[in-house]
Amino acid sequence: MTIQSVGVIGAGQMGNGIAHVFALAGYDVLMTDISQEAMDKALSLIERNLDRQVSRERISEDDKKAAMGRIRTTKQLSDLGQTDLVIEAATERESVKQAIFEDLVPHLKPETILTSNTSSISITRLASRTDRPEKFMGFHFMNPVPVMQLVELIRGIATDQKTYDLMHGVVEKLGKTAATAEDFPAFIVNRILMPMINEAVYTLYEGVGSVKSIDESMKLGANHPMGPLELADFIGLDTCLAIMNVLHDGLADTKYRPCPLLTKYVEAGWLGRKTGRGFYDYRGETPVPTR
Ligand code: CAA
User: Which chain regions cross the lipid bilayer (predicted)?
Assistant: First the structure.
């Protein structure tokens, strides 16, 4: 089987990046979201990000035009049934993902590979709710998708070798690098990254440092491209909290206890860049620390 058409569920920050890289690699992309506005926004963001690549001479104007021409959108989830590969990139909530798979599965052609871009949820459990656990995989991209080299490939207990090999080939065609992770909470990247971010929030909560000093320490003292609080805002504080909860519930170890301050920011609706406020306030010219 060869993969030519790809369905992307969710036009948010991960969905639009995934649509971008697949279209640029020559795949036909069909993106869906419950919100037309989110899809319109995603298309203009993809165009802006492609322009950025054109201006840095990474791709040509023709590459950009061809990529934009390969992306279609639909409000009907069932339209994705005829694609060869479906990548679910909806909100990081198991009930949402399960409901999507339940709605989608009756419309899928038998050979379609089904994947989830979940950053933490059990692939085996998600797969078990579908009609094709052997053709189901975790397919985890990093943000910003057009820039980050890594894709985590996660096999559920029932995923067959053919599906894994096929997806490995897709990662290569995208020009990215695959890391294989076993199906345990948050896989590899987030198992390591999220406790670090959570610890940075504890460092702030306990008054060890301010937002600025914590971020500067990790940027200048550990050569991280972004400080952990800036990165948390970039990922989304709701996503960070959801992943910590998956680690805490799934591994039952208090070392994964989400920091109460992280919970408070999420409860306030201060989710980071996407809502204009998180550990920084993004509503002015330059980001201003909120603590
Ligand atoms: N689309 C296309 N290109 C983009 C882009 C986008 N959305 N964002 C940035 N770029 C490109 C720029 O054009 C630039 O390209 P060149 O190298 O060709 O010049 C390059 O990326 C660097 O961009 P900038 O110069 O504008 O900015 P920067 O040097 O500050 O880098 C960054 C920005 C790449 C985001 C960098 O700060 C970084 O690497 N941050 C850490 C990101 C990270 O850790 N991501 C993983 C998060 S964890 C995750 O995603 C997993 C999860 O499940 C939560």
Answer: none
